[in-house]
Design brief:
The chain is 60% helix and 1% strand. It is mainly alpha-helical and 521 residues long.
């Protein structure tokens, strides 16, 4: 089977196939095809002789047409297009250093358009990351911004992501702040990219950088056209950042002092869409949950989710949009419980608020959607969404329908099972846009979530371990997904430590997790 363009070359050079033997292989294949055609048609057949006169007539028609076209002036070729075509031809045969030199020359001569600039930088970024040349990549981006600012501006949302990722790895705080300032200043243009980059910052506990940028620049959201919920969700995220900053910068004994609460309310005003709807007592309640002041004793009866009505069979079925749906008390209890998890994660697990909050919101969504049946598998759907539907060995033959098997694996209402968690995480790796940090942090925090549920008396140690042990194969899939995200090596490192975090023993021969193995049940 022939290698694909971006696969390692078969010669063992370590280069991508397209940068090594692809051109030579294709020329060899073409020569072989021409030779085969020549051998097949080397002698005349009866059909050739029969159509000889017809061929002469067709040939004479084309000769007359060519004679008529000799007086037509050839179409003038755009010099920039011609230069770009030549550049692409040179890049096909260029090695690593030559490719960088060609890109630098292209920028300095101002010939790149936005499409070619994005294509070249996007192609080069993973290669330069692999070569440990993040700093030089950053210099090339700066060169583009200086020589061709219009081209840079058209694709700036991608350069934000690369700049923030490089600055985090290089621990360059000045560059990190500059890239984040630019992200926030123009973030309203590409809200999805803003979410992706801000989640990267919060994953690395760099809320301080994001807040400084927000203090300098106010994102102009009102001038953009979004789905109705986007502006509300974004403002809520920013409010949470300010509240977490408040919790981290105040002693527990001063959290509820009137002057401090008033100062916090003043700081939150610019992120509140309708100040008249703001409830100070609601803020105090939230601070109580996250600040460890809740004294509620939970039982599993508090999470007896209401039975969901039968879903519509078709998306075209009419629904009464005016009919108000009552909020399930169990769902509200789940949200409150998850807020208490933030305090547990901060004080017991020593995890930052922002990172825990990213996981908290995903875990709540997962439990709610599983209960509502949104994560059920149809009988003709395979497990293994993260790996493209490739079933694991234990799932290849089953007498029970997949849907029933998936439902059977749900052993605890507040703990994950592998089938539905697999399906839930797959959404973060869709072809429409990958959000690896959200997926990794959700899975990464499941052991801490399990220990929290156990600490609240809502699950036994055996139930928590059974749930985590069932996710072992999914952990291997998540490691593969983390490996593909070469822009942030922390994702792979943390996923390889997942089994140890889950309480599993070292040892064994698991290549995906550097030798971790599961204890005997």
């Amino acid at each position: 089977m022939a290698p694909k363009r971006n696969d390692p070359c078969h010669c063992g050079s370590g280069k991508k196939y397209k940068h090594c033997h692809m051109k030579a292989d294709r020329e060899a294949e073409l020569a072989a095809e021409e030779e085969a055609v020549h051998l097949h048609t080397s002698g005349p057949t009866f059909g050739d002789l029969q159509n000889k006169e017809t061929d002469r007539v067709i040939e004479s028609i084309f000769e007359e047409k060519n004679d008529l076209q000799t007086d037509v002036e050839p179409e003038e070729i755009d010099p920039e297009v011609e230069w770009l075509n030549k550049l692409y031809e040179e890049l096909e045969d260029a090695d690593y250093d030559e490719t960088i030199a060609l890109l630098r020359k292209s920028i300095e001569t101002n010939v790149l358009d936005s499409e070619s600039a994005f294509e070249l930088f996007n192609e080069l970024y993973p290669i330069m990351v692999e070569q440990n040349d993040r700093k030089e990549f950053t210099e090339l981006v700066a060169l583009l911004k200086t020589h061709q600012p219009d081209v840079y501006a058209e694709e700036s949302q991608w350069f934000w992501s690369w700049a923030v990722s490089n600055a985090l790895v290089l621990q360059d705080d000045e560059a990190l702040q500059a890239a984040t300032d630019e992200l926030v200043k123009d973030g309203g243009q590409e809200i999805e990219q803003f979410y992706k980059v801000s989640h990267m910052l919060l994953y690395h506990d760099r809320r301080d950088v994001l807040l400084r940028a927000l203090d300098k620049h106010t994102m102009d959201l009102s001038a953009r056209e979004y789905f109705p919920h986007v502006e509300f969700e974004l403002n809520q995220k920013l409010i949470d950042l300010v509240i977490f900053d408040y919790l981290d910068t105040h002693e527990p004994s001063t959290l509820f002092e009137e002057k401090n609460i008033d100062a916090l309310c003043d700081r939150l005003q610019k992120y509140i869409e309708k100040p008249e709807d703001f409830r100070k007592d609601g803020l105090v309640d939230f601070l109580g949950l996250v600040g460890g002041k809740s004294t509620r004793d939970w039982t599993m009866d508090d999470f007896a989710f209401r039975k969901m009505p039968k879903r519509k069979e078709s998306m075209w079925d009419e629904e009464d949009e005016t009919k108000k749906v009552k909020v399930d008390p169990a769902v509200e209890n789940l949200r409150d419980l998850s807020c208490e998890f933030l305090h547990y994660a901060r004080t017991v697990e020593d995890l930052p608020f922002d990172k825990s909050d990213l996981a908290r919101s995903s875990i709540v969504d997962y439990i709610r959607e599983r209960h509502e049946g949104e994560l059920e598998l149809a009988d003709d759907e395979p497990f293994g969404f993260l790996t493209g539907g490739n079933n694991r060995a234990k799932n290849k033959s089953r007498k029970v329908s997949k849907k029933k098997q998936a439902q059977k694996k749900i052993v605890h209402r507040l703990l994950p099972d592998p089938a539905t968690m697999d399906r839930f995480l797959a959404r973060f790796f869709s072809f429409m846009g990958s959000r690896p940090h959200e997926a990794i942090i959700c899975f990464e925090m499941l052991p801490a979530w399990g220990r929290f549920i156990q600490s609240k008396g809502l699950a036994t140690e055996e139930e928590v371990q059974a749930s985590l042990r069932s996710l072992d194969a999914l952990c291997a899939d998540m490691i593969k997904m983390a490996e593909q995200n070469d822009s942030d090596p922390a994702l792979e490192v943390n996923m390889r430590n997942w089994r140890e975090n889950a309480g599993f023993e070292r040892g064994g021969d698991c290549p995906a997790c550097a030798g971790y193995r599961l204890p005997n049940p």
